[in-house]
Amino acid sequence: MTVVTKLEPSRAEVEPELTDGFHLVIDALKLNGLTTIYGVPGIPITDFGRMAQTEGMRVISFRHEQHAGYAASAAGFLTKKPGICLTVSAPGFLNGLTALANATTNCFPMILISGSSEREIVDLQQGDYEEMDQLAIAKPLCKAAFRILHAEDIGIGIARAIRAAVSGRPGGVYLDLPAKLFPQVMEMEAGRKSLVKVIDPAPAQIPAPSAIERALDVLKKAERPLVIFGKGAAYAQADEDIRSFVEKSGLPFLQMSMAKGLLPDTHPQSAGAARSTVLKNADVVMLVGARLNWLLSHGKGKSWGEPGSKKFIQIDIEPKEMDSNIEIVAPVVGDIGSCMSAMLGGLGDNWKKPPDDWTNTINAKKEENIGKMAGRLKKNSTPMDFHGALGALRRVIKERPDAMLVNEGANTLDLARGIIDMYQPRKRLDVGTWGVMGIGMGSAIAAAVETGKPVLAVEGDSAFGFCGMEVETICRYNLPVCVVIFNNNGIYRGTDTNPSGSSDVATTVFVQNARYDRMMEAFGGTGVNVTTPDELYSAVSEAMTSGKPTLVNAVIDPAAGTESGRIGNLNPQSTVGKKAGGKK
Ligand code: ADP
Ligand code: TPW
Ligand code: MG
């Protein structure tokens, strides 16, 4: 007799394999090549961070969300993929929001993902834990804001966020994930199918051939042409076509702060050392991924010479940018890669390089200015002034052109930007369009994490104060970051006095002789105090070679700086009553 035993149903038949909101978000990010998260844990995303680590993502935990946000936006600029910042609800979200707004302003792609409280309670304002209508608050500060309520929408929600961040003009995107979403369960297979791998997230935007022709025509007729590259050109990663275009056309060029190094600042066609001369005298200016905002005096005013003396060509992905400040006679709308390749193609074999008169004028001015500067950069005095100290750091970057440079402050920023030559694209991260203080440590962390290269962060003592606690993060992840504090005892200078004569110090002055190097030592990193450019050079070189987290406190003459660095003209001053204790 044969006994037929009934087969037990397998577990899978009874209980299909399941996934949940936590895992779907992680899988959706990974599917799209987003494998690093910058954030701060807490309700409702603590477990999310743990699971992301379990699933092989790199999760960098910060001490404050603002810096995680700056890191995400710097990662976006460097990689052309949206940087991911993860925060808790209400206060964490708000702390991340400054960075989201800054990313949008700078055209950097990032996604701020925030956990949020229970919709039903938030909307009835019944006082939930960390209650806030985050979506409404984020909306005006970013390119797009989305909320995902159901696990089956996670795939689409993340796809939308990615596309919104990187397509067209890049920017910040907000993604609201309510606490209730994370534990929602779905069948594994259905979950897998609901995910979307975004195809061609930033499609090429080909410029119209007629626009290219018009632009080339204007350039051809120019007697004193100039090209200005902005950080959009660096972001576009069209390095080869940009270099070929510049060299074949023979056009002199300027590079905006974060575009420096797109071509080496030492390139013979760089007009960086003759900036005022070329801005004033050029008759045709071609902007490539640079806006005519305050950083270029809106394309008008004294620095641009006689009103109406120039024609502008502008290459940008954002059509609304054209004519935003001044008439653009040849607008070229498209992505910079496609535009520069079309411009290069259009130069043809009979292209005539700019007239010798113009290039000779520029070269003479460059030589004069470089000569004037050389002596100041070699000064090895105590206390150091900005030029002597920056001369030392300039040597460091010359010897390590692949290192990343982060820079913020007022004098520390304005002078370093001019003095430290850059040699390779996307090596310089700074305060960007808003001139925001506090980007330093977040940018340095992202630079180290995303590129694996040594990072030099040149920081004003005030600028550093906005983000200084993140040196613990640098030590915790053992990142190859060398922070140099230009310690002049204050904002712009350390010599101001309180005009009232009371015992409170002036508003711009800090504790005298502070030892920032000891902050790094507190977390196991290396701290060095230096008082001469030679010492500074040695300490930084050693740190860059060792890759050990290092903070160099560089003692700068407290009287050396000027109010607002190089933008004192934007600073309103009272002409009524007694002058305050600051001096120019
Ligand atoms: P900078 O401060 O260096 O002068 P801006 O931030 O003012 O630069 O300008 C950057 C510009 O680059 C923005 O107008 C933006 O629309 C544009 N941009 C960014 N990415 C691209 C791209 N891939 N193709 C074309 N334009 C781009
Ligand atoms: C978020 C205003 C511009 S520059 C600066 C401040 C406070 C600090 C300058 O001092 P620092 O540099 O860094 O010591 P130095 O070399 O001139 O002494 N808050 C934000 N952003 C800005 N821009 C400010 C305030 C500011
Ligand atoms: Mg200072």
Automatic annotation (TrEMBL):
Q: Where is the Thiamine pyrophosphate enzyme N-terminal TPP-binding domain?
A: 21-137
Please name the Pfam families in this protein's record.
TPP_enzyme_C (PF02775), TPP_enzyme_M (PF00205), TPP_enzyme_N (PF02776)
Record-annotated Thiamine pyrophosphate enzyme TPP-binding domain positions: 411-553
The cofactors required by this protein are: thiamine diphosphate
Q: Where is the Thiamine pyrophosphate enzyme central domain?
A: 212-342
| Keyword Metal-binding annotated | yes
Region feature (Disordered): 562-584
Stored InterPro entries: DHS-like_NAD/FAD-binding_dom, HACL1-like, Oxalyl-CoA_decarboxylase, THDP-binding, Thiamin_PyroP_enz_cen_dom, Thiamin_PyroP_enz_TPP-bd_dom, TPP_enzyme_TPP-bd
Give the molecular function GO annotations: magnesium ion binding; oxalyl-CoA decarboxylase activity; thiamine pyrophosphate binding
Share an example GO biological-process annotation for this protein.
fatty acid alpha-oxidation
Answer whether the UniProt record assigns the keyword Lyase to this protein: yes
Cited Gene3D superfamilies? 3.40.50.970, TPP-binding domain
Keywords attached to this entry: Lyase, Magnesium, Metal-binding, Thiamine pyrophosphate
Q: What's this protein's family per the entry? A: Belongs to the TPP enzyme family.
- PANTHER family on file: 2-HYDROXYACYL-COA LYASE, 2-HYDROXYACYL-COA LYASE 1
Q: Which protein is depicted?
A: Oxalyl-CoA decarboxylase
Q: Species name for this entry?
A: Paracoccus methylarcula
